[in-house]
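Same chain as my last thread, 109 residues:
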Amino acid sequence: MLSIISKHKALQSKLGLKIDQFYNILVGIIIFSIFLLAHKALQRPVNELQYQQMIQFSQQASHPKTQQMAEGILEHTQIRRVDYLKLLNAYQFESSRIKEYPAMAQEDE
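reply #2:
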């Protein structure tokens, strides 16, 4: 009786180990495919609306570092989406750091 139980447990542990390995490999493949698709999406070129927004960033003067970054990106022949997202991140960071004060009225002077 004891040998039957031990054989059953040994067979179950071997089968369980194979299923666990299969699930680990499956999860690894899914994670790898997500990273691969994200990388491929970031390498695609920007669309027309995003290109126009980059031109606006290069012409504005209120955020000088973002302006320089946009001018540098616009020099490339093909603009990747990852560069556009970096520019948006820089613009958001710079706009949160700049302190803009309201205009003073003439009688406040």
